[in-house]
Design goal:
Blueprint (H helix, E strand, L loop, with lengths): L8 E5 L6 H9 L4 E3 L2 E3 L13 E3 L2 H9 L3 E7 L2 E6 H9 L3 E5 L2 H10 L5 E7 L3 H8 L4 H17 L8 E4 L3 H16 L8 H12 L1
Parallel strand pairs: 1-7, 1-8, 2-7, 3-4, 8-9
Antiparallel strand pairs: 3-6, 5-6
The structure holds guanosine-5'-monophosphate.
Guanosine-5'-monophosphate binds next to strand 5, strand 6 and helix 4.
Length: about 210
């Protein structure tokens, strides 16, 4: 049964290249914050640790989890499936842990629409400009430039989902962005005053999509 001492659900989403994963990893270091480990059908990257970064599963296994209704949310992102299983999340929240979700806008929509009895705070992370995003996405060779161009097109579509989030935060400087998110989480949990200017965010998004 949900109670006052339950943890809070915190979702961070962003278009590719905005630096969200680094932010989530910083927030996980806080006392009482735990990350939700997703299942994915994507192959592990060389630096990734199975069962820590993701539970890497086959498509058959993923489909079995869908059939057994084990997912709180799941989505296809690029060419792979990603999903959050319900039981570990509810257990953590009931123990008073705050749970961080590094998931895309489709997953955020699904969790929001579930109207669970736990407090939910959603953040959408944006880059400071299209130019900086392109620089972050491209490396030296031409192949990376082509991938970066593809990701820029995806960015133009993904950015439109900013409107459904509680807070949009611009990641120009990692430490400042981290402090901003942390202060907003604290203010939400303690019902304190929030340092947030929706008009500034709206005009920033308009610049990014113009
Ligand atoms: P990557 O493959 O780069 O680790 O992640 C690709 C995208 O999938 C990121 O935007 C990430 O936030 C999202 N993602 C990771 N896990 C989940 C999940 O469990 N559910 C959903 N809906 N998206 C996820």
């Amino acid at each position: 049964m949900p109670s006052e001492n339950d943890g809070v659900m915190i979702i961070l989403s962003s278009p590719s290249g905005a630096g969200k994963t680094t932010l989530v990893n910083l927030l996980t270091k806080l006392d009482n914050f735990e990350i939700s480990i997703s299942h994915t059908t994507r192959k592990p990257r060389p630096n990734e640790i199975p069962d820590k970064d993701y539970y890497f599963v086959t498509e058959d296994n993923f489909k079995r989890l869908i059939k057994n209704e084990e997912f709180l949310e799941y989505a296809k992102v690029f060419d792979n499936f990603y999903g959050t299983t319900r039981t570990p999340i509810i257990d953590k929240l009931n123990k008073g842990k705050n749970v961080l979700f590094d998931i895309d806008w489709q997953g955020a929509d699904q969790i929001r629409n579930k109207n669970l009895d736990y407090k939910l705070i959603t953040f959408f992370i944006l880059p400071p400009s299209r130019k900086v995003l392109f620089e972050r996405l491209s490396n030296r060779d031409m192949k990376d430039k082509l991938i970066a161009e593809e990701r820029m097109k995806q960015f133009s579509r993904d950015v439109l989902h900013w409107i459904n989030y509680d807070y949009v935060v611009i990641n120009e400087n990692l430490n400042e962005c981290y402090s901003k998110i942390l202060n907003l989480i604290k203010a939400e949990i303690n019902n304190g005053s929030k340092d947030y200017d929706p008009n500034y965010i709206r005009s920033h998004v308009e610049k990014l999509i113009s």
